[in-house]
Specification:
The chain has about 220 residues and is mainly α. It has 8 helices and no strands. Helix 1 packs across helix 8 and helix 3 crosses helix 4.
């Protein structure tokens, strides 16, 4: 144990450099996936057939392609048509788009779980679609969608390790580089696993806290 702690003191500062990029990728991917997911969910909920078809088609396609393939496509293929992105930008955009499909399903499930009688009553008193969404649907849908949304955020945090495949030096990639030079795989990847766990637990507790708070409300 003392040997592990001594080695950890040496490796941790180097791994923390990767933690910063992991947090950056996670934060911006969550924001992008949330915004896009909300757009897809609203399009699916709308009564405009072309919008419904577009959103459902996008969700089906994105969910059917592995995330790592999407990252490769954005980083390696898009430059061939003139869109050059840094590895960090490609990683954020790739994860954001990939998880927007799952966020859309979270939001859609929340919307569809609302009693349709409430929505019909809102329309009957003259509310517009935008007002119904803001006053009736969203307050309830958020409470319903929160548990799966929180799980999705944690999945994004863990899957941020996939951007290491396109050379982003986040936590996993940093661990690989250190392990390649020291051959101390056990210590390094144990630390990597513990760091991911330490990053995930606060999100888990925050999600549970918000669930209890909204439940009481």
């Amino acid at each position: 144990m003392s040997d592990f702690l001594a080695k950890s003191a040496t490796y941790l500062p180097l791994l923390m450099e990767g933690v910063y990029l992991t947090l950056v990728v996670t934060l911006f991917s969550v924001v992008l996936s949330t915004l896009l997911g909300f757009v897809w969910a609203v399009m699916t909920w709308s009564r405009v057939p072309p919008l419904v078809s577009i959103s459902r088609g996008f969700i089906t396609i994105i969910r059917g392609i592995p995330i790592i393939v999407q990252l490769f496509y954005i980083y390696f293929v898009m430059p061939e048509i003139g869109l050059n992105l840094t590895a960090l930008q490609a990683g954020i955009i790739g994860l954001g788009i990939a998880y927007s499909a799952y966020q859309a399903e979270n939001f859609r499930a929340g919307i569809e779980a609302i009693d349709k009688g409430q929505i019909e009553a809102a329309y009957s008193i003259g509310m517009t679609d935008a007002l119904v969404m803001r006053r009736v649907i969203m307050p309830q849908a958020i409470r319903i969608a929160l548990p799966p949304y929180g799980n999705t955020v944690i999945m994004i945090l863990k899957d941020s390790s996939l951007v290491s495949t396109i050379t982003v030096a986040e936590l996993t990639r940093q661990g690989q580089l250190i392990a390649a030079s020291t051959f101390d795989n056990m210590t390094i990847f144990t630390l990597v696993a513990l760091i991911y766990l330490a990053l995930s637990l606060p999100l888990t507790f925050l999600t549970q806290h918000l669930e209890r708070r909204f439940s009481k409300a």
